[in-house]
Structure formats: structure tokens, C-alpha cells
Write a structure and sequence with these properties.
By secondary structure, the chain is of the alpha/beta class. It has a single domain, classed as Aldolase class I (TIM Barrel). The protein is 43% helix and 15% strand. The protein contains ten helices and eight strands. The chain has an eight-stranded parallel barrel, surrounded by seven helices. α1 runs parallel beside α2, α5 packs across α7 and α7 runs parallel beside α8. It is globular and about 45 Å long. The structure holds phosphoenolpyruvate. Phosphoenolpyruvate binds next to β8. The site of phosphoenolpyruvate has 13 residues, from β8.
């Protein structure tokens, strides 16, 4: 944790949830939110943002999982940052590795999306992380540093943007980097944020994501400069998500 920074525990539901089960899961998460030190964020499918807003009633923040970089226009199937905000979102996840890989989203495009998010009043949660090959070649920090350089727009620091380190090979696999590897990566990321955004960079939240579970959350969240977690699979089980949130203090 970074001293003085409120941890953020974020759940990415991905393409899971219809109205009935999404509301039931949200009700269970909301019931466990009071008294937690951490801020809770749920990023459901866009169709559920509006229905979940009254369930969370501000006790749990809502976020989108992606947005288009344009404010409006002929972009069939896409969603704008302003639409997410209008539906009740405060955050938007950008540059998740599933989108970087499936849709070949470049870091420059992620940066444009983050600019659109900031313009709409959303806080971007920008994901970065190395493929396994780069980790094995000893290039992990170089790859992540380059992704940060290219993905974070100028206004990111002033707006309190969030960066999530998500090694691609750790997502949904049950595998995690060593605590020493996470610590080294987050130290590099903090130094880079401070160099880029000066004092504002020192207080931005840096999340770790990739197979965070109740059983490893205490150790991961105790690592310096790990200010929270981005959680996929375990966020679909309310008790697991809340157990991870409690591990943040
Ligand atoms: C993710 O998809 O961002 C993620 C971290 O997934 P999981 O927790 O399932 O590894």
C-alpha cells in the first residue's frame, strides 16, 4: 500500500450477468461494503450499469469495461464514455489484455480512449502487463514501461487515474508472479508515474490484477505500491470479492 492512499478493490465481471443474477450478486456485494477501508468498484456488462446503480446507491462505485475514443458517431456496437457516465458509471477499465489481444488495441488507442474518458468525467483504470514470453526473456519491466508511456494521457495524473498491472499470463490461470516480481514492477511503475506526473503521480492508485483470490490477497495487498486489486473470476462470487476487500484493511 502507498501511505495515505485509499485502496481500490475492483471487480471486472466481463461478459457475465443477466439482470436477475447481476442484481442478486450486486446486493450481496453491497451488503458487505459498509465499514470497509477500501473503495469498492464493480465493472459489470454495460447493460447492468443502470440497473445496479440503485442497488449500490453510491456505496459501491460502477465502471464500464471499455469505451470508444469518439464522443459519438457511426460506431456500431460501441459505447461512449458519456454513455457510461450517463448510465451511472464513475470509472472505465481500458486496455484490458483481452481487448488488447482480441481487438488488437494498441496503447495509442488506449490513450485516446483514456482522453475520452477524462473528457466525460470518468476515471480511467488503464491496464498494462507483459505476455509470458516477455517475462521469460527478462523484458517485463521494459514492456510495461513502454505501455505506460504510450497509454497514459496528459491529464491522467490530475484526474486521479488508476493503473492496473496485469501480467497477461496470470489472468484467469491461477498463476501469479512472485511477491518480489510484483514489488519490483510496482516500484518501477510508481517511479514512472512520479517522473511523469510529479507530485500527482505519487498518489495515484496502482492495482495488481491476475488470479487474486482470498487466499493470496493479504500477501499481495501488503506489497509496497500495491494500492488495490483488479479481480476477474473471484469478483463473481460475492464472498470471495468481499474477503479480498477485507484483506485491504
Ligand atoms: C482480469 O481479467 O482482469 C483478471 C484479473 O482476471 P482473474 O482475476 O480471473 O485472473
Amino acid at each position: 500500500m502507498t501511505p495515505g492512499v485509499r485502496p481500490l478493490i475492483a471487480g471486472n465481471w466481463k461478459m457475465h450477468g443477466l439482470a436477475a443474477d447481476g442484481v442478486a450478486l450486486a446486493q450481496a456485494v453491497a451488503a458487505g461494503a459498509p465499514g470497509l477501508k477500501a473503495e469498492l468498484l464493480i465493472c459489470p456488462p454495460a447493460t447492468l450499469i443502470s440497473p445496479l446503480a440503485p442497488v449500490f446507491a453510491g456505496a459501491v462505485a460502477l465502471g464500464g469495461q471499455d469505451c470508444h475514443e469518439a464522443a459519438k458517431g457511426a460506431h456500431t456496437g460501441d459505447i461512449s464514455a458519456a454513455m457510461l457516465k450517463d448510465a451511472g458509471a464513475a470509472y472505465v477499465v481500458l486496455g484490458h489484455s483481452e481487448r488488447r489481444m482480441a481487438y488488437r488495441e494498441s496503447s495509442h488507442r488506449v490513450c485516446a480512449k483514456a482522453e475520452a474518458a477524462l473528457a466525460a468525467g470518468l476515471t480511467p483504470v488503464v491496464c498494462v502487463g507483459e505476455p509470458e514470453d516477455d517475462r521469460l526473456l527478462g523484458r517485463a519491466e521494459e514492456v510495461v514501461a513502454e505501455q505506460m508511456t504510450e497509454s497514459l494521457p496528459a491529464g491522467f495524473g490530475a484526474a486521479g487515474g488508476v493503473v492496473a498491472y496485469e501480467p497477461v499470463w496470470a489472468i484467469g490461470t491461477g498463476r501469479t508472479p512472485t511477491e518480489a516480481n510484483i514489488a519490483a514492477m510496482h516500484a518501477m511503475m510508481r517511479a514512472k508515474l512520479s517522473a511523469t506526473f510529479q507530485a500527482e503521480g505519487a498518489g495515484l492508485r496502482l492495482l495488481y490484477g491476475g488470479s487474486v483470490k482470498p487466499g493470496n490477497a493479504v500477501a499481495i495487498l501488503a506489497i509496497p505500491h500495491v494500492d488495490g486489486a483488479l479481480i476477474g473470476g473471484a469478483s463473481l462470487v460475492a464472498e470471495d470479492f468481499l474477503a479480498i476487500a477485507r484483506a485491504a484493511g
